[in-house]
Amino acid sequence: MREYGSVSIPQEAFIAALRRGRNSAEGLKKAHLVDDIVCTYLFGTIQEQFDCVRCFYVLTSARLNGDWMTYAPAVESRLSKAQVHSFAESVAKQLGFSAGDDIRALIGQLGGQIDIEDTLLSDPEHTGSLYVESPSKFRIVVPSHTSPERDRFTAAHELGHYFLHYLWAKKKNPQFPDRVVAYRRGSERIEWEANWFAAAFLMAEDDFREAFDSTGGEIRKIADIFGVSPAAVEVRAKGLGLLV
Fold first, then answer.
1. Cβ atoms of 53 and 130 closer than 8 Å
2. Mean pLDDT across the stretch 134-153?
């Protein structure tokens, strides 16, 4: 992570720029989000036209304990879908987490917290974020306009970032930054991995197959068992070959 001195991008200002379509160096400078030096690096040195979302990954800031602090981006694990599923189920088992358990309580036990923020007007597509200060202190942000079932999946998704893209990355590389951010937007591979983790963490394969059989494949009943949305159940069932 390259240091930029005092440069920081407040989230609200960045979101406003996103919504105005400022996806170029000139647009960002006009929005007073980054200075000439940072724009030269982002859009010149590496010879790539990053979009605004990528800029947010590279230069994001969050207010923590009254101060602006810069976070490095989470990085994808490159594990296969099957490996991520296995990893997620192993983590759930080690933590004693079962179908329908309280994920908020689990996050608290891990040193994390869940904050609910109103993003409906400022960023309606924003469905979650993870800010990690240290291995034992992190914050998950969920929007106020989504359902409890969606929030549960979002929390598990952010745990996927925490375990896969932070703790596991840090184990592989002790020099990996302490402060990391994962901002949920788009369909990059890192988001696929977090979704794979969430699905297996909340709906372990053996438990899911059992629930599918015992309910006769009734999606709503299965969703109630695992505390997720019917859409999440359908995706999991199709992934396991139970639905076509």
1. no
2. 92
